[in-house]
Prior knowledge:
Layout: E1 3-7, E2 10-12, E3 18-25, E4 29-37, E5 44-49, E6 55-57, E7 65-70, E8 75-80, E9 89-97, E10 102-104, E11 108-112
Parallel strand pairs: 2-11
Antiparallel strand pairs: 1-3, 3-8, 4-5, 4-9, 5-6, 7-8, 9-10, 9-11
Amino acid sequence: QVQLVESGGGLVQPGGSLRLSCAASGSIFTSMGWYRQAPGKERELVAHITSGGSANSADSVKGRFSISRDNAKNTVYLQMNNLKPEDTAVYYCTVDTSLGGGYWGRGTQVTVSS
């Protein structure tokens, strides 16, 4: 079965950096990405990347966050720089498989606070 293992969340001061990782297993993965959900808000797309490396990201994180993937390791990364308090949220990894299924990770908390 498909398994997603997220890591890299934590507490960081404004202006700091974090790198999230999500290791996937159990299938062939097409697109991979990250969403986030802040308290009281809807889940929103942060960034997304195809198996060919085509990426897109939300306007709110452009220039600060970058998504990448290692296809050999079935791992997607989210490098987050110049973090702001409004980036505080639970970050979820999401993947699509070649069979058409979609899966979500359990989420990792990112807190930006001084």
